[in-house]
Structures are given as C-alpha cells and as structure tokens.
Amino acid sequence: MKKLCGIDEAGRGPLAGPLVVAGVILLEEIIGLNDSKVLSEKKREELFDKIIEKSKYHIVFKSAKEIDEFGISSCLKNSILEIIDNLKEFSDSFLMDGNTNFGIQILQKEIKADAKYPQVSAASILAKVSRDRFMVEISKEFEEFDFKKHKGYGTKAHIEAIKKFGRSSIHRTSYKIKGIDDKEEYIKSLFED
After folding, report:
1. Is the terminal CB of the chain with fewer CB neighbours within 10 Å at N or C?
2. What are phi and psi of 189, to 5 degrees?
3. Contact 59/126 with Cβ under 8 angstroms?
C-alpha cells in the first residue's frame, strides 16, 4: 500500500524572500513531529535532519520575482503539482494543510493538518527550515535588512529598513506595505491629470 504524502508551505505572507513548499512521505516513525510554528528553532533543526534521513521528500522554492509575476496562489499550485509529480510513484494520497486544494482533484485538504498528521508536520518543518536557512544565507548579501532576524516578515524593523533603503531584489513588489505604498500612490496621484 502506498503511503500518505503530507504537503505544507512556509513563506506565504512575508514581504521578502521565497515561498517554499515541501512534500513528505515518512518511511519510519519520527518522534516529536508537530506544526513547525510551535517548535523551537533548535528542535526544528534537529527534526529536519531526521526527516531528510527517514523520508521521501521534495522541496520547491518560488522566488519573490515569480510570486510578483504569477501570484502567490499560482506559485503554490505549481509547487504542489511539482511535488505530486515527483512523489507519485511512492504515494497516491496527498494531503495539504489549509482550506483549499487549488483545483487539484487528487489533493485532499484539511485545516490544522500540520498539527494532526506527522507527514504534514514533517513537510511543515522541511519548508520552514529550508526557507529560514535561505533567509539567513541571503542576509549576508543584504545586511541592511537583517533578514536573519525576521526572515522577511513585515516586522517594524523590517518596514523601517524598507523606508530607509527601498526594496531589494528579493522583496515582493506586488505586496503592498501600509505607510509606504499608500504614500507613493498619493504622491503619484498629485501628478496625474
């Protein structure tokens, strides 16, 4: 019998950096799995290596540029389709955390699946750790934004840095920021006929 493949994402909401989607089929039981958001960074890092060792998995990155060009939903859907395509020989059952299956017939969906199913918890951890590691690495290139601290999310410090330095090449320009984009729109409107 083929095993369940859990799917989850990290990075749907940040102002910068990629969307990361992971699919995981566990080959052995792993103790301590849970929704990545309730685990400490240290625990996620420990579990990451165990998951890589004891599963079939596929991780997809979609850049800020792709998110701006195609939209977050399209990026999510295409990531899920890539995961299904890469893991279908090991699984015929795919479960995503959340409330939509993006029109993908084979994909089941369930809210809080990342806390209920070890496969989805594992996918949640792979996505979160992969994204966090990327943001820490890219932080060296964009020191003024301190991505290693906030991982691209819209913290007060991050928004202040955007006000001071403008957006970088890994910021999502399609994501509007209150207090920045509304001012720009207002200034533009002053110069229109």
Report:
1. C
2. -65, -25
3. yes
Give residue 20's Cα distance to chain centre.
Answer: 4
In terms of DSSP H, where are the helices of the chain?
41-53, 64-70, 72-87, 113-116, 118-139, 147-150, 156-165, 181-191
Q: Which domains does the chain have, with CATH numbers?
A: 4-139 (3.30.420.10)
Does the pLDDT of residue 7 top 90, yes or no? yes
pLDDT tens-digit series, residues 127-160: 999 999 999 999 999 999 999 999 999 999 999 9
Summarize pLDDT for 74-128 with one digit per residue, the tens: 999 999 999 999 999 999 899 999 999 999 999 999 999 999 999 999 999 999 9
Please state, in angstroms and as integers, the Cα–Cα distance from residue 29 to each residue in 47, 55, 89, 103, 118, following that order: 12, 10, 20, 31, 8
Q: Which positions make up the binding site?
A: 8-9, 97
Structure tokens at 18: 């990629």
Which residues sit in the known binding site for a divalent metal cation? 8-9, 97
